[in-house]
């Protein structure tokens, strides 16, 4: 078994692709050889150093399987931590099992969790215990209100900007934000060490979104003061300019390999959404884009019958497709008005209103279906409607539509009655996955009077738009009532265009397979669950702590839906982080690795998350096409 | 006094209350009677059981905690054994009450007219108009000026004396044969007192009622009473014709009460000492602890039996009984009143409210 | 001063009070930055335009550059003509939002109020009539239980028992059923029960204490001496004076309960009523709707106080019109 000492790589800027692949192979071999049977014993069979002697280092396999199996445990963590001590200009060390600062006192740091959230508290307790056992750090667990944490610890209300040397380069914060107020010396009001108050969306469909984290001067997401030690900006720019999926994947994989190595946040897990369904319901799949094929769902027999009723916690602000920005209202709109496209369970583009194609990622052709009808008097949906929508509304200065920012710098041009073209400023083969080019069909004649008057309020308050009266055959159901307080009700749309398309499940030809549908606003979780249990609702989200009871309940079928939302341990790499002594050890990659190696993800998932989560290694979930493993 | 049948005959009336501290005996075996057209006064200090005795007659005290024993014969019927519903027909209709404080005794939420007619209409089947006519007539009769307009006024719009007049009207509306007036003038101004007393006197003749009048004010007694019953600590000390008793008070207690009257040269002191604890009354004569003539015999056994000392004048005192010497108490000297000026008794006879 | 004049004076005063409140509201709004203007400026900044010009344009569009008194009279006019603007968080006119919510709130709050007003004093007087007996303790215990247990928690428990286990009542409130229908009665039974138990406690205690005072009053002895039966005595002589202090407590208390208690119950039972409307308006920072609900409650409070005053004088004749 060959292993590399990770000390060799300390000054390498980034892990290249070949290293990653070979490392993968190694990890696989380790697993096959059964050497990882004891997760707690990282140093099996190697040079036997137990780390606490300080002088000797454990020989460790290389990244990417960081923090799991044979890279978990006290010995691994000690070895990594000692590397950090060497890098540090201050004299940290282990005194037996205890990590001590230059004064010889035990290292004491704190961790914040969300007040009142049991899972959050248990996670923090678990982390504290693991860091105590495996690194000899004394961790104080403290609860904090999320809003307060955000305002006083996470952000800096008046960002100062400034310059700093990042990886040998001078970086200037020209547009500092509260989240990234400037160099590491510019910090939040309150000092803090570690936090699990906030998690992140990893954007598996469009990981380019993550680039904001690394832009140095303009990011949203770097409140911890992390400076990448690889050229993140360059890699993201490669990804942005990629013209093929392979190029794209290559860039992303390299980014995510490096993130797995550097652990800007200590990645822990992706928790699953738990959704309960009526057991008679056929169709739901355990999938990230759950529900894309709703028109093929049915209850009992596969004929048109019954009602599909769901519950939601939040009211809808508006059902006007031009202005809606809410997830819940989006769902309510899409019961009656299909969006332009969706993604199937493989995260593949599935055309609804139009198909998109491109040669180079820069010029995109939109082919509109020819069987799309608005309600009378607006007639057939044509390219003209979409062009008008983009040019006169989304790209107009006076109209603050929800999609305004999506069409900045995009040139659209009609190329046929049912075809138009969009030219991007620079190529982006992920464009559909950003959801930017999705458009709701809106009749030109309906909005034209408002456009001529530049009447925003009229447009926002137009009843036909608010009540989706123009939807014609464009949605599976027709909206019959929107009660502002209690939700929406629908009846089946007998003319639904999707029945005549060639793609998708066979059952689309008869869809939707319900006579009626409704979405009820029920704010109280217990009431939503009660509705699910008694069959008044066909689906509802289930809180993880009740997974067991509903899983055993015959009236409910429970599905685990993976999510891209992670649970991470944020370590404050800014000047006011690390309150255990001089020098912020969090700024050192080996130290962050040591933290990661000290926490057992699987134990956390089993113990706190009831197994309803998957381990988190890098900034993508396993099912993302940019997850390094899929590259094997 | 008719020998055959009195309007009201009370025998061995005993009223007790169960309290947290044991049984309280407020009235202990009291007899008295009232004839038609006659005014009988029950006198005594505050707390001597006068009010309880009169309220026991029609059982308007709360039972429980109160418990009433003995016999109350009204026109030959034993009221205490009547069922509550029949007793209600007697109350307000045949036997009416007037209370001490007219301010409190009327419900401030209803017009006086409503309250007067209520008493009539729950007993008799009369129309609203008839009831109103009768009430207005009565209001007029008791001396309320502009009665038909004032019918719709509320109690707070009347003065104290007027309120008591209204109360009297309210009591008379059912044409009662017996009126029980419990210190009806105590809360009133002296000049108004006299008017009310005169009114009652007039009305008694007009309605031919018996009046059972409770007071601690012997001055009032002198004015209206035909007969007196002197009560002390739940027991009758002395009874008899008003003139006889005023002239020759038999019981030391009666004597001392009379001494408190200004006409008798009282200096405003009062009777020294306090009423005995009603939970645990003393043996023998109840008054013995405060009696200047008390002897050993006074402090043992029961309250002495009533002795007829003169025609129809009965006294419950050892000194009048067998082996007693009435002359001990029958001295003409009005006793130790001279020295009472400096004694601040806990309980004084005077314009106290009961 | 007669009752008629008193009444008109009170109504007039109520009008003045509401005008003062509306004026203060206007002044505070005028002093506060307008979110629509701010939004326009942000929008312009994001799109590379000139924020100042956009803000100016937005102000002009909304008539915000008119002189203050012109805006004031416009405001007063629209308030009193019930033109309360557009609710951006619900995408409907504010007046429509308020009436819609009121429609659902009224369906449970009217039975709730009636039951509280009837049962509260009844239980209280009953309790006082049987003071310190087991009946009193049972009634007091019941009242305290309802008072002490949080409405939303009690609601959830009952929903669990009757909705989920027994399935007698629906979990999700159905806005589609007619107001006077068995379905509506069934779905409102538990919310009304929860609210009544919650509010009856205070009313019951007040009336118990008040009537305990009155049942030992001298006029009760008078009534008894008149031959009035105990039932009639309680019904007329105790209940009536008890209602006087109670009426003041009741109106204020019900108003206070209206928002607080009903919000949580509306959340639990998913009733789209006024409590939720107000709460959500605040959360969503929907200025027009916040204003609308505030004005609504202001008017309700003003009218409630007016009614309270009038009821007070009617119930207690000792209150002089002149003094107030």
Automatic annotation (TrEMBL), chain A:
Transport keyword on record: yes
Record key words, sorted: Signal, Transport
Composition bias type Gly residues, residue spans: 36-54
Keyword hit for Signal: yes
GO molecular function, one term: peptide transmembrane transporter activity
Disordered: annotated span: 35-61, 152-188
Cited InterPro entries: SBP_5, SBP_5_dom
One family name in Pfam for this protein: SBP_bac_5
Occurrences of domain Solute-binding protein family (ranges): 358-623
UniProt superkingdom: Archaea
Transmembrane region(s): none
Family under the similarity heading: Belongs to the bacterial solute-binding protein 5 family.
Annotated PANTHER family: OLIGOPEPTIDE-BINDING PROTEIN APPA (PTHR30290:SF9), PERIPLASMIC BINDING COMPONENT OF ABC TRANSPORTER (PTHR30290)
The protein's name in its UniProt record: Extracellular solute-binding protein family 5
Organism: Halorubrum coriense DSM 10284
Lineage start: Archaea, Methanobacteriati, Methanobacteriota, Stenosarchaea group, Halobacteria
TrEMBL record, chain B:
PANTHER family: NICKEL ABC TRANSPORTER, ATP-BINDING PROTEIN, OLIGOPEPTIDE TRANSPORT ATP-BINDING PROTEIN APPD
Species in which this protein is naturally found: Halorubrum coriense DSM 10284
Alphabetized GO MF terms: ABC-type nickel transporter activity; ATP binding; ATP hydrolysis activity
Gly residues composition bias: residue spans: 334-344
Reaction it catalyzes: Ni(2+)(out) + ATP + H2O = Ni(2+)(in) + ADP + phosphate + H(+)
Keyword Nucleotide-binding: yes
Record field: compositional bias (Low complexity): 345-354
UniProt name for this protein: Nickel import system ATP-binding protein NikD
InterPro entries tied to this protein: AAA+_ATPase, ABC_Ni/Peptide_Import, ABC_transporter-like_ATP-bd, ABC_transporter-like_CS, Oligopep_ABC_C, P-loop_NTPase
